[in-house]
Amino acid sequence: MTEKVGVLGKKPPRRTGVERVVNAPLPTVYGKFQAVGYLDHDRGDEQVALVYGDLGPDRVLTRLHSECLTGDAFGSQHCECGDQLAAALRAVVAEGAGVVVYLRGHEGRGIGLLAKLRAMALQAEGLDTVEANLALGLPVDARDYAVAAGMLQDLGVRSVRLMSNNPRKREALVRHGVQVAEQVPLLIPPCESNITYLRTKRERLDHHLPHLDAVAHLS
After folding, report:
1. Catalytic site residue from 20, 42, 59, 141
2. Can you tell me which residues bind GTP (predicted)?
3. What pLDDT shows up at residue 140?
4. Annotated binding-site residue numbers for Zn(2+)
5. Which range (40-54, 98-112, 126-140, 185-199) has the least confidence?
């Protein structure tokens, strides 16, 4: 199939940014959401925002959730991602309105599924999550939040109450034009399988996890 060209034989300009493609009702065990699907023209990723209730422009309860197949789908206790996703969905329903932006392409803090599994194998041998990524020659955190800001702006959101323990998410949203009126902790009780991972997030990635102080008994 031949590629379409514009006038004078020139190719049409490549699209950039994020484009809303579809809205669909999505009843879940947490409540009835609207799944708003987007295409990220810059990276080629398909993205989705789960919207509950009527969103105003300001102080919208919001979660930017990085895709985590092992935690979100398989219930892995290596991390707290699945529990955080469930808690965020319950929180926006309890609030009466809010949005969970589910960011595909963020697996393993942006390194991809197979690389994440390799990093997990290294962690089983004694490296922490930061050391494992570096040992593989990969960035510690390769995530970009421009698409999340674009999705929120498309939804008419100017400022958010951000459910996150990660200060970098707040900084990224502000940098991309979405104000953060408040950062709301999303603290999940740790277990023996993820306590080392969580402590590394606090000590080496600056996550705000004060509840870890109460679980010194876990190995």
Report:
1. 141
2. 63-67, 84, 107-109, 129, 164, 169
3. 93
4. 68, 79, 81
5. 185-199
pLDDT reported for residue 196: 83
Residue 170 is a catalytic residue:
no
Binding site per annotation, positions for GTP: 63-67, 84, 107-109, 129, 164, 169
Q: Tell me the C-alpha distance between 163 and 100, whole Å.
A: 9
Numbered residues of the known binding site: 63-68, 79, 81, 84, 107-109, 129, 164, 169
141 annotated active-site: yes
Instruction: Please give the full DSSP string across 52-115, using - where no structure is assigned.
Output: ES---SSSEEEEEEE--IIIIIT--SSSSHHHHHHHHHHHHHHHT-EEEEEETT-HHHHT-HHH
Residue-range domain boundaries for the chain: 27-106+143-206
pLDDT in tens, 150-184: 999 999 999 999 999 999 999 999 999 999 999 99
Fold adopted by 27-106+143-206: Rossmann fold (3.40.50)
Catalytic site residue from 118, 143, 161, 170: 143
What is the spatial distance between Cα 75 and Cα 71, in angstroms, rounded to a whole number? 5
